[in-house]
Amino acid sequence: MKPTTPLLLAGLISLALAGSALAAVDDQAAKALGKRNDCFKCHAVDKTKKGPSYQKIAAKFKGKADAEEKIMKNLTTGPKVKLEDGTEEDHKIIDTKDPKELKNLIDWILSR
Amino acid sequence: MNKTALCAQIAALGFFGVIGSGTTLAADPAKINWSKIPATHVPLFYPGQSSYEWLRSDAHKNAAKEVKRGDSCVSCHDEEDAEKDMGEKLVKAGPLEPMPIAGKEGYKDLKVQAAYDDKNAYLRLQWKTQNDYPGTEHQYLRFDGKEWKVWGFPKLDKIVQDRKMIGLYEDRMSIMIDDGSVPGFAKQGCWLSCHDGQRDMQKQFTKDEVAANPLLTAIKKSDVRKYLPETRTDPLDWKTGKTVDEINKIKAAGGFVDLIQWRAHRSHAIGMADDGYVLEFRLSDAGKDVYSGNADSKTHAPKFMWDEKKVGYKSITVDQLHKGDHFLIREKNAVPFDPNAGWKEGDLIPDYITSREDAKGSAADNNAIASWKDGTWTLVMIRPLGLTNSDDKALKPGGVYNIGFGAHDDNITTRGHHVSFVKTLALGAPKGTKVDINAVKLP
């Protein structure tokens, strides 16, 4: 058997991890939480509304270690955020007491 | 065939003669092959009291600024099932629905198809009714042993809510059409016309307020109904009407929306839809409406009753409701009321009489055929092209219009309807123009 090169192995491991992370996202639960909290009034997956698209947010945080922490802060503390029209508004605080539900929503956003 | 369908087709025969009499033949709407015409599904939802004023208030969370700026409703409400979610929420008790109707649905799917030929535009609309009968009954005059009194009221009326009166009101399908002349309609549609102060809305008018209002007294109105913001000096306050001269100038510039209403009792009976417009009020077009009141203004007794020789009865009783077509049609089955015909307590005669023969002028422009089968209304509205009346929006081939839909269902009127966000309708969309509903040119 031909030995696997370290580079290929790293690639496979990375792919597997990415795959497991994506598979872990509960799409329906994330959408339901988002809908319940009116997230989609201001955000869409692939187009700019009052706020940036989820694809834009995911791209912005791609590869950044503090992505989850920063999005968590937006969703749980309601800081002032800059809207696409240049004005500012307090971000909506997501109404859930379930940290897993919140983490799932963040993972869903980051996987767009 | 049920009686409703039969009646509509008999009535329609009258207008086929009319539309076929010109030099250009119009299509027979009953024979249009609708299976060849694309359908658009338009979501309708229960809006409660979400008025023009409420949408601009802080209660409309994080959206007042955007609405005031003129953003479209769907710039926010475009997510999957947006209308369904909103309707099902708003139909229940809450800040926008102080008097919920038990069991009322919050959402309706409206299937829309459109076509046109050289003479007319044809709009085919299909929607399910909540009840297992067509809402063709409307309010009656009832003899109580001494006098005739109005009987049967819409379900939002307190007397019905208090279970002291039966809920009774005709089904209705309404469309508002703008040709681009009404500021804001392309973005916010029917919500421009729905205001606090109106019937069954927040801060409903009082009779004294109306009596003291210069505009409403000038146009001889005794309540507050739909109006466009441009007709008020302060669009957030119905009391601030502009002068009649100023409003006439807005009308002359086309700053009104056409309002076509098909009524399952008062226009369906004669194969028509009524023709009106919204400007400083919800107004009928010039001429004579397709229906009129049947109560004598002084005695409140009926002016007409059914012709017993033709229909087998001169009145009905409550046990006959929703069992057949109870239309009073002046030229077909009505005779002058006879006060000495041996009336008994509980006798019912329609409070409205309809007439194709009497309908005249701009108010009589629109035809319609409809049938109700297996819980679904199928309606074809027929609107002549190129109308030149000052109270009509002229439809023409290649034209693109903003259109809003509203369905009244289950014995209700005013806010108790299901409405759409504004859509675009084209009569043959110009190349490169994307519209929601594209009417197909008939061969």
Question: Explain this structure to me?
Answer:
The complex is a heterodimer of chains A (112) and B (443). Chain A is mainly alpha-helical and 112 residues long. Chain A has helices at 6-24, 27-36, 39-42, 54-61, 67-77, 99-110; strands spanning 80-82, 88-90. Chain A contains 6 helices and 2 strands, in the order H-H-H-H-H-E-E-H. The longest helix of chain A is centred in the N-terminal third of the chain and has 19 residues, at 6-24. Residues 1-23 of chain A have low confidence and may be disordered. Chain B has a single domain, classed as Sandwich (Immunoglobulin-like), CATH 2.60.40.1190. The two termini of chain B are 29 Å apart. In chain B, the strands form 4 sheets. In chain B, strands 1, 2, 3, 6, 7, 8, 9, 15, 16, 17, 18, 19 and 20 form a 13-stranded mixed sheet that branches. The longest helix of chain B has 17 residues, at 3-19. Chain B has 443 residues and is of the alpha+beta class. The chains are: A mainly alpha (112), B alpha+beta (443). The A-B interface holds A 35, 38, 40-42, 44, 49-50, 87, 89, 92 and B 61-63, 65-66, 75-80, 85.
Class by alpha and beta content of chain A: mainly alpha
Percent strand of chain A equals: 5-15%
User: Spans of chain B with pLDDT under 50 lasting ≥5 residues?
Assistant: 5-23
Q: Specify the helix fraction band of chain A.
A: 55-70%
Described by the principal axes of the CA atoms, the overall outline of chain B is globular
Topology:
The complex is a heterodimer of chains A (112) and B (443).
Chain A: H1 6-24, H2 27-36, H3 39-42, H4 54-61, H5 67-77, E1 80-82, E2 88-90, H6 99-110
Helix pairs in contact in A: 2-6, 5-6
Chain B: H1 3-19, E1 40-45, H2 52-55, H3 64-69, H4 82-90, E2 107-116, E3 120-128, E4 140-143, E5 148-151, H5 158-161, E6 172-178, H6 185-188, H7 207-211, H8 214-218, H9 244-252, E7 257-263, E8 274-278, E9 282-284, E10 291-293, E11 304-306, H10 308-311, H11 330-333, E12 334-336, E13 348-350, E14 352-354, E15 367-373, E16 376-384, E17 400-408, E18 417-419, E19 423-427, E20 437-441
Parallel strand pairs in B: 2-20, 19-20
Antiparallel strand pairs in B: 1-2, 2-3, 3-16, 4-5, 4-13, 6-7, 6-17, 7-8, 8-9, 10-14, 11-12, 15-16, 17-18, 17-19
